[in-house]
Amino acid sequence: MSKPQKFLTKTEEQEIIRAIKTAEKNTSGEIRVHIEPECKGALDDRVKQLFQQLEMHKTKERNGVLFYLAVNDHKFYILGDRGIHQKVTDNFWESTRDVMQKHFKKQAFKQGLIDGILMAGEQLKKYFPYQHDDLNELSDEISKN
Q1: Most buried residue among 44, 82, 106, 117 by CB atoms closer than 10 A?
Q2: What residues contact residue 24 under an 8 Å CB cut-off, 6+ apart?
Q3: Helix 109-127 and helix 92-105, axial crossing angle in degrees, nearest 10
Q4: Which one is predicted more confidently, 62 or 1?
Q5: pLDDT band at residue 64 under the 50/70/90 scheme
Q6: Strands across the sheet with 143-144, in order?
Q7: Which pLDDT tens digit goes with each residue over 89-144?
Q8: What is the mean pLDDT of the chain?
Q9: 129-137 contact pairs (CB < 8 A, 24+)
Q10: 87: helix, strand or coil
């Protein structure tokens, strides 16, 4: 059984956090990554539960994006709050998933996450550009169970 703490090296985690900061630099949107060993229950239900638990629904413009990985189950999910979900094209989430999955199949988890995060950041920037009074509403740290 793999533990989320051992899934990525400290250096890889720092690179992912830098990608989050880069993606959020030009937007009011918020991006989080959550990693856990197994998905507890149905995948979409678990991600929605974590979205609430991490208080991602409390962003001013409802423009948070959660990247979820269940390491041992080989599952991942991307959930955007209603603000961003209403703005992006229908195939945005699928194309982001496909890019990430290509990396994941090669065991390049860090790069898959970084590419997905940066893609989300571009969409957030397009629809929710940075404003002078924007605050970083959510932690950029990777959360784990």
Answers
A1: 117
A2: 30, 31, 121, 124, 136, 140
A3: 160
A4: 62
A5: very high
A6: 75-80, 64-70, 30-36, 143-144
A7: 879 999 999 999 999 999 999 999 999 999 999 999 999 998 877 777 788 899 99
A8: 92
A9: 129/26, 129/27, 129/28, 130/25, 130/26, 130/27, 130/28, 131/28, 134/28, 136/24, 136/30, 137/30, 137/58, 137/59, 137/60
A10: coil
CA dihedral 31, 105, 76, 87 (to 10 degrees): 50
Report, as an integer, the average pLDDT of 6-22: 94
Q: What's the sign of the alpha-carbon dihedral 121, 126, 54, 78?
A: negative
Residue type, 138: L
DSSP 20-37: HHHHHHTBS-EEEEEEES
Q: What residues are paired with 36 via a beta bridge?
A: 70
Give the 3-state secondary structure of residue 93. Answer: helix
Alpha helices in the chain (DSSP H): 4-7, 10-25, 43-53, 82-85, 92-105, 109-127
Which domains are delineated in the chain?
A: 4-130 (3.10.310.50)
